[in-house]
Design goal:
The protein has 214 residues and is an alpha/beta fold. It has a single domain, classed as P-loop containing nucleotide triphosphate hydrolases (Rossmann fold). 49% of the residues lie in helices and 15% in strands. Bound molecules: adenosine-5'-diphosphate (2 copies) and zinc ion.
């Protein structure tokens, strides 16, 4: 089962992708998490990505596509995966389609988590992230048991630099210009499904499982 999550920054792609990965037993692959892990480890890839991420811009396709294609060719991806944050541009989508076609494969489901821009800024300002294990919380909608501390690994939770309102505005602009066209791209391929992302996390997941099947 090969799944793509589409939607604005903060729509809940990561939250839902983790639940899908757990229920269906496929890896959750987040390009944002891969970049952040590389920044933390001080790798060359991380250094290339950081400046773009801090400004709310996309990391160039030359860097991102190769990284993602390497990842989906690893052994744990044999039964499928859920991609969170990739593709984000038409060239990224075309590269993925082509790489899969070479193996006689294709994306099975593209799930668009639909949330209007008005809701996004408050979602993002309440998001708290664990940079150690990738867990995500929300001060209001999904608080950790102990304020500021990750339930999973006990590390400190942070407001990501790029979740501050000025940067979120840039990211939304980039989303509308470069990523939203993917909705039509996957509609034409006949694999697009839209869910109402303004529902509770549980209700969104229920809608997704109805699409994917039990
Ligand atoms: P969110 O989950 O809030 O949408 P991500 O963690 O997916 O944020 O992405 C954070 C940042 O990492 C993006 O703003 C962008 O700079 C970079 N990034 C992640 N995925 C991609 C991608 N597929 N192409 C280009 N840049 C990406
Ligand atoms: P994305 O990966 O699309 O950027 P996240 O899954 O990280 O989005 O969610 C953004 C923030 O909103 C997080 O703090 C998360 O806990 C919260 N969130 C996710 N889904 C919902 C929802 N359905 N209702 C309220 N808050 C949500
Ligand atoms: Zn953690």
């Amino acid at each position: 089962m090969k799944i793509i999550m589409l939607g604005a920054p903060g729509a809940g792609k990561g939250t839902q992708a983790k639940k899908i990965a757990e229920k269906y037993g496929v890896p959750h692959i987040s390009t944002g998490d891969i970049f952040r892990a590389n920044i933390k480890a001080g790798t060359e890839l991380g250094m290339k990505a950081k400046g773009y991420m801090d400004q709310g811009l996309l990391v160039p396709d030359e860097v991102t596509i190769g990284m993602l294609l390497d990842r989906i060719h690893q052994d744990d991806c044999e039964k499928g995966y859920v991609l969170d944050g990739f593709p984000r541009t038409i060239p990224q989508a075309e590269s993925l389609t082509k790489a899969l076609a070479e193996m006689g494969e294709a994306i099975d489901f593209a799930i668009d988590v639909d949330v209007p821009d008005e809701n996004i800024i408050s979602r993002m300002s309440g998001r708290r992230a664990c940079l150690k294990c990738g867990a995500t919380y929300h001060t209001q909608f999904a608080p950790p048991a102990k304020e500021g501390v990750c339930d999973v690994c006990g590390s400190e939770l942070v407001l990501r630099d790029d979740d501050k309102p000025e940067t979120v505005k840039n990211r939304l602009k980039v989303y509308h210009e470069q990523t939203q066209p993917l909705i039509d791209y996957y509609k034409e391929k006949g694999v697009l499904h839209t869910v109402d992302g303004t529902q509770t996390m549980e209700a969104v997941f229920q809608s997704i499982t109805e699409i994917l099947g039990a």
